[in-house]
């Protein structure tokens, strides 16, 4: 546990962290302002957190913010650090981290497709990834209603009782 | 009967006159060459005394078939070359006249010491002419070696005179035939080395690369055809008619000749500059001709000699002209030169192919003849060497011809646009000259019988016993 | 499935249908979770080869196209392309509730909810996913249908091709798409 | 070659087709039983072929059709040359080299139409098939060469007759065991059975040359496969197992060999094509050369 | 009488072609066509005059059956290829001299086959060598011409040495007479046998001397490669025949050691032939340039021809003689087809082409029939000759030759199919969409060659009759023909029956095909791509690395080419050494050498 404390102290010393949580033995959650995110990530990378496990977004529609979540992992100590930051929802623009973690290129593309968050500096992120010929709202945003889209796009089969086969009861 | 001494006297006279009347030098030169060429046709065979002294003491001129043939070709070539390169003569007219006299003297004289005198005259004119290329270091090198050679020749001569008391060739050959060959080793070796320098035998031809390599379109053909031809004929007369060689010395000199042939061809294979290729080729050819003379095959040797000097005249003229006008004679830089000079190219190709010994050309007839001759001596390694030499010669000449005809890098279809941009132009006179020469080669190849017939009595050259393969080619003789 | 009583087929057609019934080669396009049900039907316990059925590598050689699960928009485009590459008298069998009415993905933005809207389906098998017994039963029904000449989905597709095409374009915007990976 | 020969030829083709197709059906049942399942009806193969022939099909141009027709024609012509037991449809034409090379007409026809379909998988399949042929054919030809030199006849029925003189012991598979082994392995390659069927690998290259064939073309290719199996197996029966004194004996031997090979092939994995070539140029070629050397130089087993 | 007109006509034709092409290039090319066709007609007319003798200028000629046959093959190939010359007039640097050299080399080859004495033979041999040497560089590579010339001249100089040696021994140069005395002198016969056949080996392109074939054929002008590979390779076969047929090889080597019943000397050359079959096949499978591929196939087929000729027996010899004819027209047809493709698309690289059948169906048909004959598949001619050769080998039990022969014939399926699949079939690239098909003048020779290949495949009687006469002249029993079936020791081949049965089979298959419904025409791109949408035909065509798994097996093979190139470079270095040793610009070096010579003579000469 001491390596975890050492890590927390060190991060607190360096950066103005909005919030620090320890949900589990090997996990650390850190909230930080979007301006310092890149500095924190490059620091973590330098101190052994070689792998970016995940980059995803969370849509807090009530607070009208997007929350970007970066999970980095240190193979030597086995510690996950979950870095979170908030973005204004209406003009969701952020800078790419492919400079630090090149692997983030496809994550950013995925987040852009499903949430609409633009990542400057990663020209690939504006291209479609999974959805072919999609021109609606990015589907993962809470203000998008999939069921309505499905009912409009994919005609339902009308539910007709006679479809249920009559079963003769045999004594 | 007109005394052949005129052949020597007239050029000398004109030489002195040309010093007086500097303006007419070139006309005098042309006049001299014309007179000589005309005179040769009217001469009758036989022996001519100079100054009334009997042979063993006085000097006599011998004009037999061998000399007649030599004179005809040498004077003819001299005339043709001078006419071709009149613009290049500059102030060498007098020297050329003296050279003409010396050359004729070489072929005619029957006395060894008189031969030395003419040798010196010709050598001096050669040194002066070689200087025209402004490469004085090579000319100096040629001067040193030339004098060393003629010095050794003189030394050998003195030994002969001390032993046999006479210098007349006919007389000497009778005495030597009966003499003990061990006495003859040193003098014949020295004479061999002396002539070897001029005849470009391997170890003695250090000067050839410098002189021939930088010759222009007058000096090049002059040296490679006229001078080389005369020297080889003299060599042939001495070693085939006069000096009987001992078995051991003969094989050694034969080896030396064969070595010259192979070394010359190999060296040519490794060169890319046209004139260097040609000079090594002429070294190789002279090695071949020397071996033929040494093994007693006089007539094939003479035929191969004419083939060599005729084609070398054409080749060196074109090469010299290329070097003069474009400043370089590197085959790579001049690739596709014939694209715009087709006629000169055809003449060059005919000469090249005849040199290799391709059928339809004179070279083929002489090659078949010399092979028959060598096989008749039951000598089985020499033809191998000769044929190997032909293979190597064929390779580098075809490589040169293909490069000059078809420009273009590997993998690209050859096209006129790839041809060299160098400003090559060959004057009318030169083109006419080389076309005449190549025509002679072509006719010689197509109708070998015709050349054989009118030279048939000269076939019995030097009345020695070796059977001459007149090779009338009618399905073998 | 309307069954017309009188049989208009020529005798030659009848014979051909007998052969087509007893030798059905399937192009099992493992589109969804149903594909895992196929191996048991092929191997020793159920052995569909006794019905004359066997897997084939390409749609050109296949007779029946098994849609064994939910169909996303992208997969449907490929399925339609494969279906059109198959040779005539071809049949489609829809496995499971996802092909019937979208199943548990009825409200997804990407999943089809009614297969026969896009392709003529001869036979549906209910279940989320039908077990091998159900599949063998379905195949038996299919064989009887072909024998009686009722499996005419492919002719239906040919006759009102534009109706099908309209539905496909409505849902998929374009069937033959260009994607960046093949330029 | 008068009209009767053509009638015999047609009958031979019919008999070969019926016999071979039932045998294939039976073998599919045998293979199923190997895998502990019931397996199809014995006449399933007939149904498959006629179903394929009854279906419509797509074509990619005239070379695609012409190739299939040329292939089937070539293979049928080769089948006509094969003596059906003692019966010969065409007199004095059962020379081994003629059969080997006319077989190539069929292969070339199919290869041509497969490449003509424009599908790269077909071309890959064809290049593998030809490489496979280069692998299995050389040892086989060597052994055959040895036999021809030994008995001074290259006609199948002639060689079969020679074997039958010595009764069971006269069979070449007994007298030249190495040759027999090589022949069986090469037969495995010829038939394109499991270890050497990398050129019709369904999962890897979508059944190779057959990728674009559907319906009628596929039916014709099934016919072609039946006839080529008939040719190749009867070639081995005539050369190494004494041909057939009577048609029945010939068919029994034929069935046994074919079923044996089928069983062997079902337990073997599939070779990559270069593994197949290296395999054939190591063991079988060595055996073949040794066998031929023994026959020609030592003359063992020939007396 | 007609034959001396023929030879003179050729050389006059060459000059007239040159002059005519001065006026108009196309006319010059048509002149070559007229003269070569004229030669063909004259040859056929002169069939009756076999055995007559005549002389031109100083050279003696004699018309023999084998000479007539060889020149027939040669003139046929020249005539058929001449049709193509007019299309390459604007693509060559010296079209006028190309026409001249084309007919000149034709005259050379024809003269060669009728030569009565060895010198005439050698003269015409050299004429062909240097005239073709100047055509090859007009193509893509100059180095090819030099390599071609060097290897040819090595061969011809060796043969010249052999001729001179013969003359020295037998006193006469006449072909029949010169070889006679060798019968009772095995040692000398062996020497002359190996030296004299050298020119043949280099021209056929047998193993150590084959490196010029792919270079020269691959890069020669497209309209000259068919002649190079179809025609000129056959000259080598003539020399090979002379050194085994006229030189009494089998009697002379009776005493020497025999391997499998063949004298060791002849067996050694047969091993070379076998090696060149295997090598030619393996290298041909690897090639990406169609012309190099067919060139290597000529090496392989040259191996067949050499083995057949060396055997000098009833079957293999007849087989090789017929294979000579079949290979000539088949490889000429194949080269012409590739020339049409090159004429239209500008490239012969297999990986850059595809789907040519849709634009030029007749060329495709020509290529198909040519490769069926090259691969030796019935009903084409190639099958008959390969069948005869293999029967001959089986008769004598030469197992290692048979191994190479089988490898060669099965291997030929692979390499002939590669251009067929990758150049003519498969996807058609958009840039080749609007290619025109072969021009009319090219179609004529292609159809003629197709008909010939098919005709002599089904009815080889006429050719085998001529070959029988050749065999009788060479003193071996001729190949027997009864009706239309060829009687070999251990088998009978009736090509007509094979064709009829094949037709019958084809008929049944056609009936089956016609019975069924019409099939739906589908575009080339609409194929099973595991349901992916692909729109670029070039990427979707399988043309390059066609036999990659097989090629990987022998990727790192030792190559004799590098060895010979290294040898050539050694010659170059020897030249430099000579230059350094003797030709330095300092006179001192020469003086040093003079003293050395004098010392050697004086010290050594004491014992003299």
How would you sum up this structure, described in words?
- The complex is a heteropentamer of chains A (171), B (477), C (183), D (303) and E (608).
- With 171 residues, chain A is of the alpha/beta class.
- Chain A has one domain (2-163): NADH:ubiquinone oxidoreductase Nqo5 subunit (Beta Polymerase, domain 2).
- Chain A is 25% helix and 27% strand.
- Chain A has helices at residues 2-14, 37-46, 104-115, 146-153, and strands at residues 19-24, 27-31, 51-60, 65-74, 79-88, 93-95, 118-120.
- In chain A, the strands form 2 sheets. Chain A has a 5-stranded mixed beta sheet with strand order 1-2-5-4-3, covered by helices on one side. In chain A, strands 6-7 form a two-stranded parallel ribbon.
- The N and C termini of chain A lie far apart (71 Å).
- The relative contact order of chain A is 0.12.
- The mean pLDDT of chain A is 87.
- Chain B has 477 residues and is an all-alpha fold.
- Chain B has a domain at 247-477.
- Chain B has 19 helices and 2 strands.
- Chain B has helices at 5-20, 25-42, 65-84, 93-108, 112-130, 136-164, 169-178, 181-199, 208-213, 219-242, 247-269, 274-294, 298-326, 342-356, 362-376, 381-405, 428-446, 448-454, 456-459; strands at residues 46-49, 60-63.
- Chain B has a two-stranded antiparallel sheet.
- In chain B, helix 3 (65-84) runs antiparallel to helix 10, helix 12 runs antiparallel to helix 16 and helix 13 (298-326) packs antiparallel against helix 15.
- The radius of gyration of chain B is 22 Å and the shape is globular.
- Chain D has one domain (3-298).
- Helix content of chain D is 73%, strand content 1%.
- The mean pLDDT of chain D is 89.
- By secondary structure, chain E is mainly alpha-helical.
- Chain E has 2 domains: 117-503, no CATH class; 564-607, no CATH class.
- Chain E is built from 24 helices and 8 strands.
- Chain E has helices spanning 2-23, 25-45, 65-85, 95-113, 118-135, 142-170, 175-178, 186-196, 198-204, 212-219, 225-246, 249-252, 264-286, 290-311, 314-345, 361-375, 381-396, 399-424, 440-458, 461-474, 495-515, 548-553, 560-582, 587-604, and strands at residues 53-56, 59-62, 258-259, 262-263, 480-482, 485-488, 491-494, 520-521.
- Chain E has a 3-stranded antiparallel beta sheet.
- Chain E is globular and about 100 Å long.
- The N and C termini of chain E lie far apart (62 Å).
- Chains in contact: A-C, B-E, C-D, C-E, D-E.
């Amino acid at each position: 546990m001491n390596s975890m404390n050492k890590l927390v102290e060190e991060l607190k010393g360096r950066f103005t962290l909005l919030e620090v949580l320890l949900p589990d033995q090997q996990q650390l959650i850190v909230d930080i302002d979007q301006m310092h995110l890149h500095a924190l990530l490059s620091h973590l990378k330098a101190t052994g957190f070689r792998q970016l496990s995940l980059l995803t977004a969370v849509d807090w529609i009530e607070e009208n913010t997007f929350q970007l979540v970066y999970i980095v992992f240190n193979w030597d100590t086995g510690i996950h650090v979950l870095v979170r930051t908030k973005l204004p929802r209406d003009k969701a623009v952020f800078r790419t981290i492919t400079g630090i973690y090149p692997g983030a290129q496809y994550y950013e593309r995925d987040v852009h497709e499903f949430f609409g968050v633009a990542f400057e500096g990663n020209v690939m992120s504006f291209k479609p990834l999974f959805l072919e010929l999609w021109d609606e709202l990015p589907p993962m945003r809470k203000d998008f209603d999939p069921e309505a889209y499905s009912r409009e796009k994919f005609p339902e089969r009308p539910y007709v009782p006679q479809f249920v086969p009559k079963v003769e009861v045999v004594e | 009967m007109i005394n052949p001494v005129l052949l020597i006297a007239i050029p000398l006279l004109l030489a002195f006159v040309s010093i007086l009347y500097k303006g007419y030098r070139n006309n005098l030169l042309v006049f001299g060459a014309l007179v000589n060429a005309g005179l040769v046709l009217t001469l009758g065979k036989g022996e001519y005394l100079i100054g009334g002294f009997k042979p063993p003491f006085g000097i006599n001129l011998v004009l037999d078939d061998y000399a007649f043939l030599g004179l005809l070709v040498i004077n003819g070539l001299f005339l043709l070359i001078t006419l071709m390169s009149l613009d290049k003569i500059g102030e060498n007219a007098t020297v050329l006249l003296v050279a003409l006299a010396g050359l004729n003297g070489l072929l005619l004289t029957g006395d060894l010491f008189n031969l030395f005198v003419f040798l010196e005259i010709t050598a001096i004119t050669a040194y002066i002419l070689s200087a025209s290329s402004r490469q004085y270091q090579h000319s100096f090198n040629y001067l040193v070696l030339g004098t060393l050679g003629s010095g050794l020749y003189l030394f050998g001569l003195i030994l002969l005179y001390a032993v046999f008391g006479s210098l007349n060739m006919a007389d000497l050959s009778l005495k030597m035939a009966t003499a003990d060959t061990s006495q003859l080793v040193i003098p014949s070796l020295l004479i061999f080395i002396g002539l070897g320098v001029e005849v470009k035998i391997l170890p003695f031809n250090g000067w050839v690369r410098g002189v021939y390599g930088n010759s222009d379109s007058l000096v090049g053909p002059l040296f490679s055809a006229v001078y080389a031809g005369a020297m080889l004929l003299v060599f042939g007369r001495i070693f085939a008619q006069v000096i009987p060689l001992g078995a051991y010395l003969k094989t050694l000199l034969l080896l030396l000749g064969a070595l010259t042939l192979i070394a010359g061809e190999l060296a040519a294979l490794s060169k890319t500059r046209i004139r260097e290729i040609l000079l090594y080729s002429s070294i190789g050819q002279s090695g071949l001709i020397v071996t033929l003379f040494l093994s007693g095959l006089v007539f094939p040797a003479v035929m191969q000699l004419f083939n060599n000097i005729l084609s070398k005249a054409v080749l060196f003229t074109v090469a010299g002209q290329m070097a003069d006008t474009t400043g370089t004679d590197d085959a790579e830089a001049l690739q596709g030169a014939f694209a715009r000079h087709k006629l000169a190219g055809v003449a060059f190709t005919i000469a090249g192919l005849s040199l290799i010994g391709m059928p339809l050309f004179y070279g083929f007839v002489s090659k078949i003849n010399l092979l028959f001759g060598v096989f008749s001596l039951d000598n089985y390694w020499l033809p191998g060497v000769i044929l190997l030499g032909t293979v190597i010669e064929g390779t580098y000449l075809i490589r040169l011809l293909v490069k000059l005809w078809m420009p273009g890098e590997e993998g690209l279809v050859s096209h006129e646009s790839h041809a060299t941009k160098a400003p090559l132009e060959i004057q009318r006179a030169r083109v006419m000259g080389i076309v005449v020469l190549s025509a002679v080669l072509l006719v010689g190849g197509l109708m070998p019988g015709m050349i054989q017939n009118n030279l048939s009595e000269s076939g019995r050259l030097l009345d020695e016993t070796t059977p001459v393969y007149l090779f009338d080619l009618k399905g073998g003789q | 499935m309307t069954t017309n009583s009188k049989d208009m087929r020529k005798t030659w057609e009848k014979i051909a249908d007998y052969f087509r019934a007893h030798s059905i080669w399937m192009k099992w396009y493992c589109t969804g979770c149903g594909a895992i049900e196929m191996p048991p039907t092929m191997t020793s316990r159920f052995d569909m080869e006794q019905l004359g059925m066997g897997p084939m590598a390409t749609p050109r050689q296949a007779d029946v196209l098994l849609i064994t699960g939910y169909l996303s928009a992208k997969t449907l485009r490929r399925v339609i392309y494969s279906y059109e590459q198959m040779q005539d008298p071809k049949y489609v069998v829809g496995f499971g509730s996802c092909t019937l009415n979208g199943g548990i993905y009825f409200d997804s933005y990407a999943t089809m909810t009614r297969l026969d809207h896009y392709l003529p389906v001869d036979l549906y098998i209910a279940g989320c996913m039908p077990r091998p017994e159900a599949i063998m039963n379905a195949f038996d029904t299919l064989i009887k249908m072909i024998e009686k000449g009722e499996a005419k989905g492919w002719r239906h597709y040919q006759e009102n091709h534009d109706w099908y095409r309209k539905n496909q374009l409505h849902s998929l915007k374009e069937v033959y798409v260009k994607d960046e990976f093949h330029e | 070659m008068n009209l009767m020969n053509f009638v015999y030829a047609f009958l031979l083709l019919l008999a070969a087709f019926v016999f071979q197709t039932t045998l294939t059906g039976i073998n599919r049942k045998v293979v199923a039983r190997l895998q502990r399942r019931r397996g199809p009806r014995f006449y399933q193969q007939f149904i498959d072929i006629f179903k394929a022939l009854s279906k419509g099909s797509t074509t990619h141009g005239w070379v695609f059709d012409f190739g299939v027709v040329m292939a089937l024609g070539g293979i049928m012509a080769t089948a006509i040359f094969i003596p059906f037991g003692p019966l010969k449809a065409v007199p004095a034409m059962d020379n081994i080299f003629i059969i080997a090379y006319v077989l190539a007409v069929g292969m070339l026809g199919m290869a041509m139409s497969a490449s003509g379909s424009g599908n790269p998988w077909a071309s890959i399949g064809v290049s593998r098939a030809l490489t496979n042929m280069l692998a299995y054919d050389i040892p086989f030809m060597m052994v055959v060469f040895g036999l021809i030199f030994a008995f001074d006849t290259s006609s199948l029925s002639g060689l079969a007759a020679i074997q039958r003189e010595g009764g069971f012991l006269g069979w070449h598979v007994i007298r030249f065991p190495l040759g027999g082994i090589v022949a069986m392995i090469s037969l495995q390659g010829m038939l394109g059975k499991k270890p050497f069927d990398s050129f019709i690998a369904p999962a890897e290259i979508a059944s190779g040359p057959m990728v674009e064939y559907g319906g009628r073309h596929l039916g014709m290719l099934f016919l072609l496969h039946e006839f080529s199996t008939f040719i190749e197996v009867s070639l081995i029966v005539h050369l190494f197992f004494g041909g057939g004194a009577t048609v029945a004996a010939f068919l029994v031997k034929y069935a046994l060999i074919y079923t044996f090979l089928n069983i062997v092939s079902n337990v073997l994995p599939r070779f990559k094509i270069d593994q197949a070539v290296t395999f054939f140029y190591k063991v079988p070629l060595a055996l073949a050369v040794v066998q031929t050397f023994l026959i020609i130089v030592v003359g063992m087993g020939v007396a | 009488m007609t034959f001396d007109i023929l030879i003179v006509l050729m050389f006059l034709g060459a000059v007239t072609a040159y002059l005519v092409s001065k006026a108009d290039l196309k006319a010059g090319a048509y002149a070559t066509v007229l003269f070569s066709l004229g030669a063909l007609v004259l040859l056929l007319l002169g069939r009756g005059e076999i055995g007559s003798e005549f002389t031109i200028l100083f050279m003696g000629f004699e018309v023999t059956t084998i000479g007539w046959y060889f020149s027939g093959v040669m003139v046929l190939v020249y005539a058929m290829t001449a049709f193509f010359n007019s299309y390459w007039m604007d693509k060559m640097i010296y079209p006028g001299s190309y026409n001249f050299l084309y007919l000149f080399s034709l005259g050379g080859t024809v003269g060669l086959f009728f030569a009565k004495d060895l010198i005439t033979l050698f003269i015409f041999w050299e004429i062909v060598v240097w005239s073709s040497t100047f055509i090859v560089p007009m193509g893509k590579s100059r180095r090819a011409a030099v390599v071609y010339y060097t290897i040819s001249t090595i061969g011809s100089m060796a043969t010249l040495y052999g001729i001179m040696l013969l003359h020295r021994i037998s006193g006469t140069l006449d072909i029949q007479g010169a070889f006679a005395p060798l019968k009772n002198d095995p040692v000398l016969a062996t020497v002359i046998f190996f030296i004299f056949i050298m020119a043949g080996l280099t021209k056929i392109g047998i193993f150590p001397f084959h490196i010029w074939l792919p270079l020269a054929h691959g890069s020669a002008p497209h309209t000259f490669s068919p002649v190079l590979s179809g025609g000129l390779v056959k000259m080598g076969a003539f020399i090979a025949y002379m050194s085994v047929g006229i030189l009494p090889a089998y009697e002379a080597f009776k005493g020497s050691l025999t391997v499998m019943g063949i004298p060791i000397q002849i067996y050694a050359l047969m091993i070379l032939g076998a090696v060149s079959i295997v090598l030619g096949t393996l290298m041909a499978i690897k090639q990406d340039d169609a012309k190099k591929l067919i060139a290597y196939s000529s090496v392989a087929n040259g191996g067949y021809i050499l083995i057949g000729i060396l055997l000098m027996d009833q079957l293999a010899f007849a087989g090789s003689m017929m294979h000579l004819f079949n290979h000539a027209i088949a490889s000429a047809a194949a080269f012409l087809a590739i020339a049409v493709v090159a004429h239209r698309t500008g490239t012969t690289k297999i990986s850059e082409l595809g789907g040519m059948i849709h634009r030029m169906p007749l060329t495709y048909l020509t290529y198909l029939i040519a490769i069926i004959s090259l691969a030796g598949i019935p009903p084409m001619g190639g099958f008959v000759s390969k069948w005869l050769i293999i029967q001959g080998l089986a008769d004598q039990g030469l197992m290692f030759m048979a191994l190479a022969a089988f490898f060669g014939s099965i291997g030929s399926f692979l390499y002939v199919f590669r251009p067929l699949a990758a150049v003519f079939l498969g996807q058609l690239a958009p840039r080749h969409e609007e290619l025109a098909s072969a021009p009319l003048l090219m179609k004529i020779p292609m159809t003629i060659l197709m008909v010939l290949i098919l005709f002599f495949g089904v009815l080889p009687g006429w050719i085998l009759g001529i070959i029988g006469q050749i065999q009788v002249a060479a003193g071996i029993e001729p190949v027997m023909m009864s009706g239309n079936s060829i009687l070999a020791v251990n088998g009978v081949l009736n090509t007509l029956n094979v064709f009829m049965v094949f037709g019958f089979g084809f008929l049944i298959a056609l009936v089956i095909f016609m019975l069924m419904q019409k099939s739906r025409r589908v575009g080339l791109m609409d194929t099973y791509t595991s349901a992916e949408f692909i729109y670029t035909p070039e990427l979707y065509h399988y043309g390059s690395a066609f036999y990659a798994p097989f090629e990987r097996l022998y990727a790192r093979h030792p190559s004799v080419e590098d060895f010979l190139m290294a040898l050539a470079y050694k010659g170059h270095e020897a030249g430099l050494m000579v230059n350094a040793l003797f030709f330095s610009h300092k006179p001192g070096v020469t003086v040093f050498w003079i003293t050395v010579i004098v010392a050697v003579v004086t010290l050594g000469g004491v014992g003299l």
